[in-house]
Amino acid sequence: MEVSTHQNPSIPSFRGYSQCEGGSGVDFDAYMDDYTFHADFMNCDDECSSLGSSAVPSYENDSEGCSDDSDLIDDGSNSSRLRERADSVELTGSTEMLRIRFPFQSISVRLSDFLCLQDNDLLNDTIVDFYLNHVVEHILPDEPKQLLAAVVGIRKHMKSMFSNKRVTVLPSVFWHNLSILHSGALADEREANLTEDQKLDARFGDVLDFVEDFDFIDVDYIVVPVNEWEHWSLVIVCHPFTARARMLCFDSQLSEDPNNMQNIAVLCDDFLKYVWLRRCQKPLCSSERMRCIIPDRLPQQNNNYDCGLYIVEFSRRFLLAPPANLDAFDFGAEYPDFTVKNKRRDIQKAVLSLCSNRELWNPFMDLQDKKM
Asked: Which of 193-197, 199-203, 365-369 is the most confident on average?
């Protein structure tokens, strides 16, 4: 894994410079105390993420700001400053901190994504996707490899060996595509004379193509992050296409719209029936809807920005220790010590632990340590 330091001209840049005596240069290390947590640096930049992210403002070197005396007199410190200037690294909102390949997703974490892990900020789609996959691939204990029958394609067989776990994590954009395309198809159906199969293809065909490489059938759990109106919720489909199939719905703001999770569950259930129909070339034996379960005593957030932290921790707790009886799922009883108090810090550590040039990003964590 490599960290890219290329500059996107459309995104303002931050440069580290040696402090010229009497000038306006900014030293990177000296400026870190104000840089990471200053509110001015948290302006939304749509180019950085589909769900919003933070841009890094521009600080350019003002060589004319240095006094003439400092240019003419070399007391030994100027050469040191020149070396510092040569060693400086240019960072922008699009600077890539980490690129990592998970079994079904390749994720690039940029500086703008990392900055949304500051206090009081909403987690964006990149961070949510990264951490949900990180839990499955790096936190869950390995289970015995599930070798598929020889009749299954070699590509799918290799994926099963690679993932080594029976969990599929769908990307955040999946729900966005599913809800938008489904709504558009319903509107078109009113003006078109379509068969039932054509209606299903119009509603779900493009979405199924989008997740063509994802395993939906030979898994124990399907994790679906949902973002609507800048609020994160979570669906976990348990034992899909079996008699034990259940759909768990997690939301840290249930009081806002009690029926919304039910509507989300219905759409997910319709899509999974379509997946079975197209991949197995036959309808499900049962046409009944999968039972939707909202756990009792589900922890609720007391602010408007921690929803992303809640859903990634909901997922981590559940996947590490699933309840034996999903129909009587009491979250408070199963996970009495649930908290998201240090979750931002945990995710920051997870990102940095996988960076190839971690020393470049250590100042961020050092600053966090001072804040705690």
From this structure: 199-203
For residue 81, is it within any domain? no
Q: Are strands 167-169 and 106-110 parallel, antiparallel or unpaired?
A: unpaired
Beta strands in the chain (DSSP E): 13-14, 91-92, 96-101, 106-110, 167-169, 221-228, 231-238, 246-250, 291-293
Is pLDDT above 70 for 273?
yes
What is the dihedral sign for C-alpha 301, 240, 100, 125?
Answer: negative
Express each pLDDT in 281-314 by its tens digit: 888 877 789 999 999 999 999 999 999 999 999 9
- Residue 360 falls within a domain, yes or no? yes
Residue 79 maps to a domain: no
Helix (H, G, I), strand (E, B) or coil at 228: strand
Distance, in Å, from the CA atom of 313 to the CA atom of 199, rounded to the nearest integer, reads 37
216 in Cβ contact with 279 (< 8 Å): yes
CB 128 within 8 A of CB 67: no
**SS3 category, 236:** strand
Return the CATH number at 251. 3.40.395.10
pTM of the model: 0.73
Could you read off the pLDDT of 9-68 as tens digits, one per residue?
A: 333 333 332 233 333 333 333 333 443 333 333 333 333 344 433 333 333 334 344 444
Q: In which order are the strands placed within the sheet that holds 221-228?
A: 167-169, 221-228, 231-238, 246-250, 291-293
Q: Which domain holds residue 289?
A: 121-371
How far lies 312's CA from each of 27, 127, 134, 184, 293, in Å? Answer: 36, 10, 10, 30, 18
In the chain, how many domains are there? 1
Q: Is residue 212 part of a domain?
A: yes
